[in-house]
TrEMBL record:
Family membership noted in the UniProt record: Belongs to the LysR transcriptional regulatory family.
GO molecular function: DNA-binding transcription factor activity; sequence-specific DNA binding
Record key words, sorted: DNA-binding, Transcription, Transcription regulation
Domain of life the protein comes from: Bacteria
SUPFAM superfamilies hit by this protein: Periplasmic binding protein-like II, Winged helix' DNA-binding domain
Keyword Disulfide bond: no
Full protein name: Transcriptional regulator, LysR family
Domain HTH lysR-type: 21-78
Length: 305
């Protein structure tokens, strides 16, 4: 039995066909290599033991190399088989991921958005119900990223306010969404302390925020020790616990301000740049990205600064 079809050339310009073994043989080989058993591979693929064995035998005969050797009652990959399996496994993983993405895209147009966990939990996710009511056929896929390493991870858009660590090309592509307003916030009881006795709660990866605040306001509101945390939501929790004064964007603590859990004795001031959406490089934005961006602009503007 021949596994490969010879390419018939009608001219020098005819492109050769791919020289690939049948997918059924590759599936049998991959399943045996992964499970270590013809029996288990047959059960997984819903084929008979004999059918899987024949696929394997024909593949080995055509390749001219033994892919497995006996080990007790099971099989073990040979050196050649292990090398081949590494390539087959990678190809199958990529094919599986691509097919899953194809199925997701076919079910509903989607947009992949990356943002900080704090922004997602405290603003974006609670607002998505409103977005879905207006745009029920668009689904948003969220990825969490951080100020330490803002990265696309395949996302169509990254939502961020501090682009100081981004490449110049990324900053030029950034799409403005809304101004950001930061305030030094703490509990009402903590606000009664003198600045010299207040601890400063800082974000480990956006330390320049406090420098911007003091340059804009001239208010040294916390001159005591500095407590640093790697995520904004931890800074907020530290402030709520009475550990110090945190510098936070107003939208992220709207509920705490309304309920009086946190106060901003010196108010909120706009920071340079504002909240922006950074498109992924090297590919066109999906059509639904424009819809999402315009919705975000309107929703962000609805929160008075």
């Amino acid at each position: 039995m021949q596994f490969f079809c010879p390419c018939v050339s009608f001219s020098d310009e005819l492109i050769a066909m791919r020289q690939l073994p049948p997918l059924a043989a590759l599936r049998a080989f991959e399943a045996i290599a992964r499970t270590g058993s013809v029996t288990r591979a047959a059960e997984e693929l819903c084929r008979s033991h004999g059918a899987i064995s024949r696929h394997l035998r024909l593949l080995q005969e055509h390749a001219g190399a033994a892919l497995f050797e006996k080990e007790g009652t099971g099989l073990r990959l040979t050196e050649a088989g292990a090398a081949f399996h590494a390539s087959v496994r990678t190809a199958f993983d990529q094919l599986e991921a691509a097919y899953a993405q194809l199925a997701r895209d076919a079910q509903a147009p989607g947009l992949h958005v990356a943002c900080s966990a704090t922004f997602a939990m405290r603003w974006l996710v609670p607002q998505l119900a409103v977005f879905y009511r207006s745009h029920p056929h668009i689904r948003i896929r969220l990825s969490m990223t951080s100020a330490r390493e803002m990265r696309h991870e395949g996302a169509d858009l990254i939502i961020a306010w501090d682009l100081s660590t981004y490449a110049e090309a990324d900053r030029r592509r950034a799409i403005e969404l809304a101004p950001v307003h930061f305030g030094a916030v703490c509990t009402p009881a903590y606000a009664r302390r003198r600045p010299a006795n207040r601890a400063r709660i800082a974000h480990e990866y956006t330390a320049s925020a406090w420098n911007q605040w003091e340059a804009l306001t001239g208010q040294p509101v916390a001159l005591g020790e500095t407590l640093a945390f790697p995520h904004t939501h931890l800074c907020i929790e530290a402030a709520l616990s009475g550990l110090g004064v945190a510098l936070v964007e107003q939208r992220l603590i709207a509920r705490e301000l309304k309920e009086g859990l946190l106060v901003a004795p010196h108010g909120f001031v706009p920071f340079e740049g504002g909240l922006r959406a950074v498109p992924a490089a090297g590919r066109a934005l999906p059509a639904q990205a424009g819809v999402f961006i315009e919705w975000m602009r309107g929703a962000l503007a609805a929160v008075p600064a």
